[in-house]
Amino acid sequence: MRVLQFVQELWLLTARSLKVAVREPWAVLPNVVISLFFLFVYDAGLGAIGQLHAFAGVPYLAFILPVALVSGSVGGAGAAGQALVRDLESRYFTKLRLTPVSRTALVMAPMVSGMIQLVAQTILILLVALWLGLKLPGGPLAAVAVVLLAAGWGLGFAGYAVAIALRSQSGRTAQAATFVFFPLLFLSDTFVPLALIRAGWLRIAAEVNPTTYVFDAMRALLAHGFETGPLLRGLAAILALAFLTLGLAVHAAQRSLREA
Fold it and tell me: At 171, is the pLDDT very low, low, confident or very high (cuts 50, 70, 90)?
């Protein structure tokens, strides 16, 4: 019974966050434009290197597409943090905490809202990639799996942004904090396979970077279909990030509510 009540509370709060986001589309569009910019520019400028042996026949469009999808996760995380800050600044969050609504639902709602927005963005970028000539050997199920991976990664980012927002209660700080993740995007096999990375320090950074395994899981799905190894490693990286950041967000919420 308690679980059902939690789901209802989470749904109502998430629906409210989505309505707010729909009223402010210009807050979301820049993130979509930047992701599409990544896709167009890198595919056009570097597409020919996909013919190198190290790519093992993977089309460069399929190789670079995950970069556009994962970069969108950072913007989605920032949106979740800013949505929570708006509620804090308007005292709406304070009013909600006076009700018997679940504290976890209060924290989860902007994160789930951001994840839903990220799913819509990911689907749009995938459609653009198909228009550019992307082939999906794994069929529609592979595309669905890529969307789910992007959503899970975005949820992990959102947990971090919400935790920062709760501690700082500043929209600018929450947005700025998400830039910590940009090095993760580029200290990875972002543009070429690991075999083509000559700098030893960069290869080591890529090997310990969880983003590498998310990239590899998506690339395997896009280029070959379902491959157990890359998919399991990608899922492990996503679950580890989500478990850590969601825990931080809930802890920050409980601490914030005690101090209020």
Answer: low
CA distance 258 to 260: 6
Domain regions of the chain by residue span: 25-259
Structure tokens at 151: 């959503």
pTM of the model: 0.84
How far from the centroid of its chain's Cα atoms is residue 131's Cα? 23
Task: Name the 3-class secondary structure at 160.
Answer: helix
Token code pair at residue 46: 């570097």
**Would residue 227 be called left, alpha or beta, if left means φ above 0 and alpha means ψ between -120 and 50 degrees?**
beta
- The position carrying tokens 């927005």 is 117
Return the amino acid letter for 73. S
CB–CB of 253/107 below 8 Å? yes
**pLDDT at position 260 over 60:** no
Residue bearing tokens 């914030």: 256
